[in-house]
Amino acid sequence: MNVAQLETEWTVVGDAKSWMDALLAAHGGSSPFASVKLEQRTQSSLKRRDLTVLDRSGKACLTGEVKVPWAADGASPFVETTVVDARAKALAAGSPWFFTWNLNELVLWKTDSFGDLGQPRGFKTFPVSSLRRQTDLTNPRFIAELRDGIERFFIDFMRVFRGETDLPQRAPDEYFVHAFDSFLAWPVLGAKFELLRRDGNASQRGAIDRWMRDAQGWILVGDRSELLGRAAKFACYAIANKLVFYDALRKRYTELPSLEIPEDEASGEAVFSRFGGFFDEARHVTGDYETVFGNPGADIGSRLPFYDDNVVDGWRAFVRQLDRFDLSKLDYDVIGRIFERLIDPEERHKYGQYYTRPEVVDLINSFAISKGDAKVLDPGCGGGTFLVRAYARKKYLAPRLGHTALLETIYGTDISPFAAHLSTINLATRDLVEDGNYPRVVRRDFFALRSGGDFMRLPRDGGTQTVTVPRFDAIVGNPPYVRQEDLSSDQKAEYRNVARMGGLTPTGRADLHVYFWGQALALMAPDAKLGFLASSQWLDADYGFALQAWLLENFRIEAIIESRDEPWFVGARVQTVAALATREADPEQRDNNMIRFVELRQPISSLLQHDDTTAGQLDAADRFRDAIMD
Ligand SMILES: C[S@@+](CC[C@H](N)C(=O)[O-])C[C@H]1O[C@@H](n2cnc3c(N)ncnc32)[C@H](O)[C@@H]1O
């Protein structure tokens, strides 16, 4: 970096000081702070830009260090060496708080609640900007973002200082989630930039569209730049996902080499090949995990995280951070949660990717899964919450069933490869040690499943075995909420044909979830259970009447449960209802059945109180189910 570049960077830090000064002046006597000091020094090769805030008694109350995102040590404000160094300085200055800031994101830390990595830490993150290169520092748009971000942070810090609010203390798994998110911001930014550039070329644009539409199952509506941003994010998280899982597998398969990118590796293409080598090795050594590692590599999604050479440092920083964590000490139940946070609420709404609260999942499973060996399917399994909770429930019902036996009865499909990764990882990490750790999760359109048809191939005694689609004892889940307006006429025609096989003929106005019910029936055993959470519109809207009539003709509806108190999907804006039904061929049984319409007026977590153990959670769900059924 030349002197002129350094000057520009330092100017920004100087600006940050003057923005803080201006806020102090605006608050006049009501500000708890006396002044902001800026130190810029170059010690041998170390460039330091330190900011210190002094309180009214002249003592340091906040110290902090600024890095730039295009420098190796600035890939994220969570780079461990930077954080530890910044804390040491805070301790030396007697400052109760400190921050690390890589211009794009700022993290405020609490000096005394800061354990080693793997211990709880108190901190809060502030998104600031999305700078990609040095020249952005002269762009007024970015300067305005920086100013805005610093002001928001500083006002918040005043409240922390006054004791009006505190920094949340986060457990190691939560820390991991935040750091993970933060480290990926840089590769995502680079990938988005490259996608936007390539999108200008007609043939590349066509290939990008095909990937988003066919491989991800997205509906290509809305703002193009937003859509490409989402593509960049998904592609990078899918790679990161594989890296996390690879790292976890190394506990069991010690022959797998550790993840490393040599210092002299400078091209994105080389990193792509290096990671590809790791993943091939993992597939080879484990003989499995096709769903996770089996990406052919030619597809845009697996390449675009590496289009931009600037991201190499970001990936290097990411794998280093991964290496510092002992993933085996994290609670793997949260892995699905880690990834669900990645999709922001706006996107979820648009693409129907919501994830269901675990208590609701337990309640639905409690109705639907009554035996440890029941064959269960979630047809749009997302991050795997229904499947993982089904695993826990089956183990609870039949404690002697081992990991392999449990996995043999739990099936998941999802049209999104990302979701299929998540569910596979989430199930496989229940037990990484047992042989035969093969989750039955595939990336597949649910409407393509046929009873008795091929489901997937799995390793068996040195060869492979074909797993066929069984008759399921329970089909549970949260079918996607995609409004009929967003479905193409081809899609609707195809889905309608399949739903008809289950005897259901939805009207043209039906939402996507309605077709799921019909297809589900086609795959169910004679007295199987269905537990679907869906938008409650089908109880009132015209298109729902066909579904209601069809349910009454094929099922004994046990209960319809709705909450008046809270949404049951993270980020969902629609009212949801859980429908619980048993397949019933006998018309008399169906006619004499009483349906329980249940309206919850308290949060489900207060109705299903438990002692935080898995058994306690499942037991609470069973008790509540019994109360409803009595
Ligand atoms: C509402 S989410 C539910 C996720 C998960 N069951 C949960 O509750 O946490 C719906 C899922 O269905 C998937 N999906 C959409 N269309 C699909 C299709 N035709 N076949 C299989 N999965 C599909 C989406 O990718 C999404 O992950």
UniProtKB/TrEMBL annotation:
It catalyses: a 2'-deoxyadenosine in DNA + S-adenosyl-L-methionine = an N(6)-methyl-2'-deoxyadenosine in DNA + S-adenosyl-L-homocysteine + H(+). The keyword Methyltransferase applies. GO terms for biological process: DNA modification; methylation. It is an enzyme of class 2 (transferase). Residues 409-569 form the Type II methyltransferase M.TaqI-like domain. PROSITE patterns: N6_MTASE. InterPro entries: DNA_methylase_N6_adenine_CS, MethylTrfase_TaqI-like_dom, N4_N6_ade-DNA_methylase, SAM-dependent_MTases_sf. It comes from the Bacteria. Keywords: Methyltransferase, S-adenosyl-L-methionine, Transferase. Its EC number is 2.1.1.72. This is site-specific DNA-methyltransferase (adenine-specific). It comes from Sphingopyxis macrogoltabida.
